[in-house]
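User: I'll paste a sequence; please echo it back and then give the predicted structure.

Assistant: Echoing your sequence first, then the prediction.
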Amino acid sequence: MAFYEKGDVRIHYEEVGSGFPLMVIPGGGLNSTVAGLANHPFNPMEEFKGGYRVIAADLRNANGGQSSGPLEIDRPWDAYTDDHIGLMDHLGIREFMVLGFCIGGPFIWNLLKRAPDRIVAGVLTQPSGYRPTMPDLFYHNNIKGWAPALCERRPDITMAQAGAFLEKMYRANADFVFTVTRDFVRQCRTPILVLPDDVPAHPYAVAMETAHLAPNAQVSIYPWKANPEQIQLALRHIGTFLRAHQPALQAHQPLAAAAQ
């Protein structure tokens, strides 16, 4: 049972395998947990542990998870990204690749904005995005499915505070992928692979727009979740993409070495 702690933040994480670091961000919205990967279309901890050092963590304050910390109402997306970057710092990892499901899509874009020199490549799997026909989808999903249980086990957090947090997270910048602009995506040269979905929280149009805008983007087959054979094809594409963009291991330096 591994934890990373910084101030009032305590993040539970797990890692398997060895090789170039691959951070995995589970789906499940604000209830994103490592355990939840067992219910995803595939589990990257199992699929990629043979070739990579795969690292995943429970999201801060996720119900059902073991990570906790303050509710940073004024900077929700950045608070979570602080945890992602902080965990890699804690592990002594400078450069890494990242694969994210669902809410992992906006998180990957925020990582690319905050730490562009550290993210080697990104895989956005069924990424979340803003759907104009359902503008309050994420706010309502979380005010019902995340906030009440959080407030019940955390007396220091009120429903009013949770509502303000969600307001800032999903309504203050209600467009596109929430965390970055289209101009940012146009200028982002980091290689990305997009596996689109098309359910209310994972709009196909937004996933494809990011793929068209990003200069070094690829798109996998669609619908890739239709059956086990399609999932295996998508996994093959992910594996090829990761291998193509993985730096030589001897060129990889931990943070301590890079700082000298």
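The CA atoms of residues 143 and 163 lie 7 Å apart. The longest helix spans residues 228-245.
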